[in-house]
Amino acid sequence: MQQDIKLPAIFKLGHLDIMLEGVQLPTIVLIGDQSSGKSGVVESLSGVRLPRGEGICTREPLILRLQNHSETKVYLEYNGKSVPTDEVHITDAIILVTNEISGHGKGISNIPLKLIVKKNGVPDLTMVDLPGTTRVAVPGQTEDVFEQISGIVMEYITPENSIILNVLSATVDFTTCVSIRMSRKADKTGERTLAVVTKVDTAPERLLEKVSANDMNVGLGYICVKNRVANESYEKALSEEGRLFETHVLLSKMVKSMVSIPVLAHKLVQIQANIIFKCFPDIVKEINDKLAVNVAVLSEFPQHSGTVAEALATFMPIRGLATESLRKFFFEVGLDEYSEDFATQCAAKWFELHDLELKQHSAKVRSEYPDKKVEYLMDELMFLQEAQRNGLPLSEMVTGISNFHARAVFL
Length: 411
What we know:
Elements: H1 3-15, E1 27-32, H2 38-46, E2 62-68, E3 73-78, E4 81-85, H3 90-102, E5 113-119, E6 125-129, H4 145-157, E7 162-169, H5 178-186, E8 193-198, H6 207-213, E9 222-224, H7 234-247, H8 261-299, H9 308-332, H10 342-368, H11 375-390, H12 394-410
Helix pairs in contact: 1-8, 9-12, 10-11, 11-12
């Protein structure tokens, strides 16, 4: 199968939420400490503006699907809903949906929000942007916010076919970053981790030494980028970034394969293609295995009754078995089926053996099963008790119970 066929297939499987069935798809996962510039990286790759501000901006997993398309289309998907929007209103739309998913305020949720961006010039990528890690809860957050975010992050980055895109600020010591500790825990060899260093224009000193030393054992390397200024257009931002790495006295010394958003986008596309090529056979096998198991389970279920006639054909043998069970009971206590007084004897024996038992069982059913779904059992017990008191012949008892079941099937 050609590579260009596999990528759309993975996109379709992701759209079908097959991961909810336990099938892990190749995923690029963005993690980073709070205010690391993670949202800025997503904006630069997607060409759309995301919510920004103090504190946690991403409050639930944001599944971002980018598709290079001649016609621009932007829409959100969550909880089975699809909400179309546009580049101008995307920020407000995300905030509105986030409040619906995670509540107003600054709470965290593990319910994913999908953002689909079809736009000319964007890379064909699927990424998951996770909430930024923070150790201190702010007003509006629960005290266990760190544990909540850590749980979400580890859930997404632990699978072997997850690529970890760890966003680090050039202004901090990388060894102190919580996100680095998490990625090293999930990816001990570092072979699944790519580091993106942001805000390089604000802390260029010794940056080359930091990324060249690779003390963090980042197997996929480092890419350094300049964050877009808030009101700057994306075209202007790319131009300014290129100029910075060309002219800055320190940053211009960095290898060109380690700098800029375009280089990052190209590398992510390559990484995504490689992981899909590697994992695709296993994904197909896992889907086929799960399908075979489900087909086998389905084959054990009774055939669906589509008409009343089919339902009757299924039910009548069951009714016959119930009738036969009642007859066997009375024969085993010594009654003669062909006795002239057979019905009277049956009624007497029934009353003798089961009057107290029925009363006790009736009380037990009422106390243990208050649900309305068992009312038909109570009706049966009341019918039998009434039949005993009135001396109803056995044949009428059996007919009454059987007819009651038949009605219950079709009501």
